[in-house]
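Researcher: Re-running this chain for the archive, since the previous output was lost when a drive failed. Same request as before.
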Amino acid sequence: MIEDIKKNSDTLNDGETGAIEVMTDGIPKIEDTQMISETRVMERMTDGSSTVEEKKNEEDSEKFSPLKEVGLFLRDLMICMAVVLIITTFVVRPIQVKGSSMYPTLENGEIGVSNLLGYKLNGIQRFDIVIIHMEEKNEFLVKRAIGMPNETISYKDGKLYVDGTIVEEEFFDEEYIDSLNEIFMEDVHEITLGEDEYFCLGDNRPHSTDSRYYGAFKKEDIISKGVFIIFPFNRFGPYTW
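Model: Regenerated structure tokens:
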């Protein structure tokens, strides 16, 4: 009996030991777990750094691609051209003053823009500076609108009459007029304008070819109004707008 009990005890001990061994064999040691974790972290870090380097190399190669640079240049050029076209078609029109017919208000060679949008929205008011296109000569004139549609215009003794009433032309430079040794404005017999006609004159009356020579201008001939001088800089600003 004693031997049997002893055997059973040994068998139990062996079984427990085996069970413990089996249980412990299935559980990784803490040190092994830490090593595995560190190894995985290192793998991830190295994988990430290689990915970043690859992306950087790809970006650098794309950045210095000649075809891409040409494409970006053409895109920017097309955008700029479209913006300029829109502005010069609907907002302002670039102009250069030629001749002395508007002196001293505007001087020969001055560069600026004329108001397209304001003309389309508000039309022309008396004494506005206007840009006139003479289609038969393919020329542009810069003059001042003196007579409006359906009005009767005349000049007598240098004075402007509109429908028989004197209208002062306050835009004149009196000092310049006094410096001239000639008649500044000759008489003009009465002219009755049509419903779409404007009587336009240059400010430098003795040296301007205008409605006294060409006759009244049609509304369709006037493409914009006002002048904003950009160059020279000492003349920078609007001259009616």
